[in-house]
Structures are given as structure tokens and as C-alpha cells.
Design a protein that fits this description.
- The protein has helices spanning 23-32, 42-52, 102-119, 155-161, 164-174, 186-203, 210-220, 257-262, 264-278, 294-301, 332-339, 343-354, and strands at 9-12, 15-19, 55-62, 68-79, 83-88, 98-99, 123-126, 137-140, 144-150, 179-183, 224-231, 234-244, 247-255, 283-290, 306-308, 311-315.
- The chain has 358 residues and is of the alpha+beta class.
- It folds into 2 domains: 9-141 and 310-320, Gcn5-related N-acetyltransferase (GNAT) (Aminopeptidase, 3-Layer(aba) Sandwich); 147-290, Gcn5-related N-acetyltransferase (GNAT) (Aminopeptidase), CATH 3.40.630.
- Strand 3 and strand 4 form a beta hairpin.
- The longest helix is centred in the N-terminal third of the chain and has 18 residues, at 102-119.
- The chain starts with 8 loop residues before the first strand and ends with a helix.
- 44% of the residues are buried.
Length: 358
């Protein structure tokens, strides 16, 4: 998981940075920190590493007594197509530096840049936390927005909290004879992957390895599950969600071609709100979307207000950022071709490509 402990940043302002090798210390710091996300957790870091082969590392800022006062979990993502980067965190919408003190955050930012230089990695990507402002760091904003709001008190109140036009779509879904199942077992995992794989193929993007979903479900245990919408017994929409400190996070979800006409996605998210409430959740995190895209508008239609997300990137001199955006002009032809692939071919080739996206 981590290299032998050695200082990556010399003692300065009573803080030094070194690899964190003690799992219990990692778990304890994340559990105690109010700003921690599931993407800072050892469970996430190690699950991604097991499923994709990308190295999992954690940098810790230590005070003079040796106590952890800051944390930065990382994945070393390598791809022959997309290049390499140190990413915090891999396959995540969040992560980044976890520290209360700006001086501690600066020390971690300096340390990860030093680690990148030492390993010959051209870039570092921080998907959350306070963006560093040191040499080589660039803020990235006006690209993504996050969507989250509190859950209503019950199903009826939840329905009324949805704006009128979208509420009408949800009502039609509720009257459509669809069935909803939840679970973590073999059947739910199989059906979720089938639906998700078809969904992303239809969008023109490669599917992640099934091992990634299995690893996350296994690592998070009861704090992750799958909700699937079925029509005539067949899965038509499905979502894998994380549960974190009273918030449900629908993370990997999608629907088949049939889902749109059946309004299965409307059923899926509304049912998930009720399912999460029954688990004791009080907040719904709809995840991130790129500004100006269909998913961005869809989430606004549900009554969620966008919150700009600020990411940060460090680049070695003369380097350019990795381009992993499927909406990029350079991938337009590939996206159009991918949409036409037979599903069996997309599912065989896609994971080999997608594991390099990080």
C-alpha cells in the first residue's frame, strides 16, 4: 500500500509529511474528521487498487508528537492511452487534501508534488478539498457542479418537493407497474452491471470493470447496496449507492433503452430516496455533472441546486493535463463509433480502456 516511511517534506512549522502505513491510524483519522468523504477512506482506496491494479498510497502530515493532522490518499493511475497521474481519489468525484490547518494542507500539496517529481509522474489531480496555490498548481472550476439536498420527511412530502413537471413524470412511473428490488447479492450485482454497461455503451463511453463494483460493495459492506427497477421481471434501471454519515450517494447508475419510455430512472431515484430514508438517511447527494450537459439539467429538474466544484491540478513544467473527458472534441469520432458497438464487444474491450481513466 505504501512505501517505507520517509519524510517527503522536511520539518517545517512543526509539520512533516510521510507515507502512512498504519491502517488503524488511517481509519481513525477519517472517522474523526468532519470533512472526510468515502473517497478519503481506506476502504475506497484499497478497493480501487484491488480492482484496477493502480497503486494506492496515503500521505500523512504529522505533528511533532507524531499524530496525524492531515491526510491525502492517492492512486497512481497509469494508462497507455491517457497517460499517468497521481489522483485523489481514483474513480471518485471527491477526495483531495483532508486538513483543517492551511499550513498542513500546504505541506501535503508540496509533498505530493515532490512525490510526482520523484516518480516522474507529470500531473497530480485533486478532486476536492482546499485547492493549493503553490508553484505548478492550477485551480479548475466552472466545469463540474455538485447536487445535494435534504430528504423530505416521507414519501408524500418527497413527491411534493420535486418541481411540478418532474413530479408528473415520477407519478407516471409510479403508475407504470414497475417493481423495485434492493440488495448486494450475486443477482443484484449481475443485473446492475448489465444495465450499467448498456447505459454507458449507449452514451459512447467504455464501461468500468465489474471487479470495481464488486470490490467497492465488498469493502463498504452494509454501507453500499444496489437498487434495481424491473419491468416484467427484467432489469431496466439500476444504481449502486454509497451511504456516508446520513447521506445516500447514488454513484453508478443507468438505464437500458427501454428505461426512458418506462420512466424507470424516475422510479429509481424516487424509490432510492425512500429506501435511503428507511435506512436513516437525511440527505441525498445526486453527485456531480458537467455544466451544460443533459445530466446537469436533469438534476436541476428534480429541484437540486448546482454547487460549483473546485478541483486542482499540478503539472510538471512543459506538461499538459490528461484529457479523459468523453465530451472532448478529440474523442467525438470514438464516441460515435462506440455507440454502434455490439454490447458484447463493448463489455469486453471497455474495461481495458476505462481502468485507465481513473
Amino acid at each position: 500500500m505504501s512505501a517505507p516511511v520517509q519524510n517527503l517534506v522536511p520539518a517545517a512549522a512543526a509539520v512533516r509529511v510521510a507515507p502512512l502505513a498504519d491502517p488503524a491510524v488511517w481509519d481513525g483519522f477519517v472517522a474523526a474528521h468532519p470533512d472526510a468523504t468515502p473517497f478519503h477512506s481506506r476502504a475506497w482506496c484499497e478497493a480501487v487498487s484491488r480492482a484496477t491494479g493502480h497503486g494506492c498510497h496515503a500521505l500523512a502530515a504529522l505533528d511533532t508528537a507524531g499524530a496525524v493532522v492531515g491526510l491525502l490518499p492517492l492512486h497512481h493511475v497509469r494508462s497507455p492511452l491517457f497517460g499517468q497521474a497521481l489522483v485523489a481519489s481514483g474513480f471518485a468525484v471527491g477526495g483531495g487534501i483532508l486538513a483543517d490547518d492551511p499550513a498542513v494542507a500546504d505541506a501535503l500539496a508540496e509533498a505530493v508534488a515532490a512525490l510526482a517529481r520523484t516518480r516522474g509522474v507529470p500531473s497530480v489531480e485533486l478532486r476536492g478539498g482546499q485547492p493549493p496555490e503553490g508553484e505548478g498548481w492550477h485551480r479548475e472550476e466552472a466545469t463540474y457542479a455538485g447536487f445535494a439536498r435534504d430528504l423530505a420527511a416521507d414519501d408524500d412530502a418527497e413527491l411534493l418537493a420535486i418541481p411540478r413537471k418532474q413530479r408528473a413524470e415520477v407519478r407516471k412511473a409510479l403508475a407504470g407497474g414497475l417493481m423495485v428490488t434492493t440488495g448486494r447479492g450475486v443477482e443484484e450485482r449481475r443485473d446492475h452491471y448489465r444495465v450499467y454497461a448498456e447505459s454507458v455503451r449507449n452514451l459512447g463511453t467504455p464501461v468500468f470493470p465489474k471487479a470495481l463494483f464488486d470490490a467497492v460493495l465488498d469493502a463498504f459492506g452494509a454501507d453500499a447496496d444496489i437498487l434495481t427497477v424491473r419491468a416484467g421481471g427484467q432489469p431496466v434501471a439500476s444504481v449502486l449507492s454509497l451511504y456516508w454519515r446520513g447521506t445516500v450517494m447514488p454513484y453508478w447508475g443507468g438505464g437500458t433503452f427501454a428505461a426512458r419510455g418506462l420512466r424507470a430512472n424516475e422510479m429509481m431515484y424516487y424509490a432510492l430516496m425512500g429506501h435511503a430514508r428507511s435506512r436513516g438517511c437525511t440527505r441525498f447527494d445526486f453527485g456531480r455533472s458537467k455544466l451544460g450537459t443533459g445530466p446537469f439539467s436533469y438534476k436541476k429538474n428534480w429541484g437540486f441546486e448546482p454547487r460549483p466544484l473546485v478541483y486542482a491540478r499540478w503539472l510538471a513544467p512543459g506538461e499538459t493535463p490528461r484529457d479523459t473527458n468523453p465530451n472532448s472534441a478529440r474523442y467525438r469520432l470514438q464516441v460515435d463509433l462506440w455507440k454502434r458497438l455490439p454490447l458484447w464487444a463493448a463489455n469486453r474491450i471497455g474495461p481495458l480502456i476505462a481502468r485507465g481513466l481513473g
